[in-house]
Amino acid sequence: MKFMGDYPSRQTHSSVEVTDQIFVAAIKEEVLRDEIYCQIMKQLTENRNRYSVTKGWQLLWLCTGLFPPSKSLLKHAQKFIETRQKEPLALECKRRIQTVMRSGSRKWAPHPVEVEAILQNNTKISHKICFPNETVQTFDVGTNTKNRTLCQNIASKLQLSSWEGFSLFVKIADKVISQNEADYFFDSLRQLTDWTKRNKPVKDGATMSIAYEVYFMRKLWLNVTPGKDLKADSIFHYHQELPKYLRGYHNCSRDEAVQLAGLIYKVRFNKDRTQLATIPKILKELVPDNLLRAISPDEWKKSITAAYSKHEGKTVDEAKIAFLKIIYRWPTFGSAFFEVKQTSEPNFPEIVLIAINKQGVSLIHQKTKEILTVYPFNKISNWSSGSTFFHMTIGNLVRGSRILCETSLGYKMDDLLTSYVHLLMNAVNKQKSLPA
C-alpha cells in the first residue's frame, strides 16, 4: 500500500527501501512468496485509483521477475493476469513468470536500477559496460539476465572469437571484483553494493548510493595467442598487459624494452612524430619502472625514436599485436601479479611477487624478476584467503608444505586460482568424455 500510494506515510522512503520491505523477507522465506502475490492482486482488484493501479502493476512486474507463485497459486495468478490484458504490463508479467520458472528464482531483492527503470515504465533496461581500451557501450540487461548470457552477448557484439576466459568485473572504490558467471547480473550487483554499504560508516539518516562501474575483461589467459583473435588483442589483451609491463613485473631486457617502447609510442601517437621530442618527459608511459634509470633519458629518446621509425609503417592494431607477440614469449605473459610478504620460505626474500597464470602459481624475486619457483595447479591441494592473508598448500594435505602470504588482495588470488582450476578440470573432463 505504501508503494502504491494507498497508505499515507509521514516519513519519506526511497522506492528501493519500500521494495526491500516487500521482497527481502520473501526471498529468504519461500512460504511468504504467495502472500506477496495475493496482496498485490488484492490491492489491484476493483481499485478505482489509476495512479495506485499503475504502481501496483509495476510492483507485480518486479515480483514476477524475482520468483514465481507456488504450483497451487500459479493458475490463479495467471488467470488474474490474463483477464486484465488491457493493462500495459500484463503480457510482460505473464511472460516473466514463465521465464523465472525456467531459470530459477532470484537471490536478492531488486537492484535500484531495476526499480528506477519500472518507475519510468521502462521494461528494457540498458547498462553501461566499460572495456580496457577506455571505451564504453550499453547493453540490454533483463532482470533475469545471468552474467554468463551478458558475457556471451558482449563477445558476440564485439565479434570476439570466443568469450571463454572473459568475465564481468565490478569496480567499487579501489576494489575490482570478478562476478560469478552463474549468478543473475542484478543479484551480483545488489550483493556487492549491499556489502559495500554494510562496511562503510554512514551518518545517521543519510541514504547512501554506491558508485560502481561494470567492466568486461579477460580474466583467464589459457588459449591466448597474439594474432589469433585480432578484436580481442586490440580491445583487451594489449590494454590489459600494458600496465603490468610498465609496472616492471616482467623480466625484460633493455633491447626488448626499446622495441616495445617504439611500439607503445606508435599505438599512442600513430604517425605524429612531433611527440618524439617529449619522450624524456613521458618515459614512465613507455619504459618499465625498473629500467627507467638503466640509461639516460636522452639515450632512451634516441633508441626509442630509432625503434619507432622501424614500426612507423604499421597500423595501430598491428603495433598492438607486435607488442603482444614480444611479451608472449615470456613465461609471465598473461599473469595477474601480486606483491606479497611471504613468511614460510626462509630461502626466499620476504617480499616477493606472485604471478598466477596458465602455468600455475609462480614466486618471483621482486628486484631481479627471476622466477624462484613455479607451483603447477595439479600440485596445489588447498588454498584459503582472508582480508589480510592468502595461504596455499603444496602437495599432500598432511605432509605438504604451506605458503603463507600477507596481502590485502587474498580474495583476488583465491578467486583466480579457483577459476583456473575449474576451467582446467572442465577441459580434462571434456577430453575424457570424447569418444575414443
UniProtKB/TrEMBL annotation:
Molecular-function GO term, any one: actin binding
Domain MyTH4: start-end pairs: 1-119
Keywords tagged on the record: Actin-binding, ATP-binding, Cytoplasm, Motor protein, Nucleotide-binding, Repeat
Span of domain FERM: 125-428
Subcellular location: Cytoplasm
Domain of life, source organism: Eukaryota
Main location group: cytoplasm
InterPro entries from the UniProt entry: Band_41_domain, FERM/acyl-CoA-bd_prot_sf, FERM_2, FERM_central, FERM_domain, IRS_PTB, MyoVII_FERM_C2, MyTH4_dom
Pfam families in alphabetical order: IRS, MyTH4, RA_2
GO cellular component terms attached to this protein's record: cytoplasm; cytoskeleton
PANTHER family: MYOSIN VII, XV (PTHR22692), MYOSIN VIIB (PTHR22692:SF24)
Sequence similarity: Belongs to the TRAFAC class myosin-kinesin ATPase superfamily. Myosin family.
Name recorded for this polypeptide: MyTH4 domain-containing protein
Annotated organism of origin: Callipepla squamata (Scaled quail)
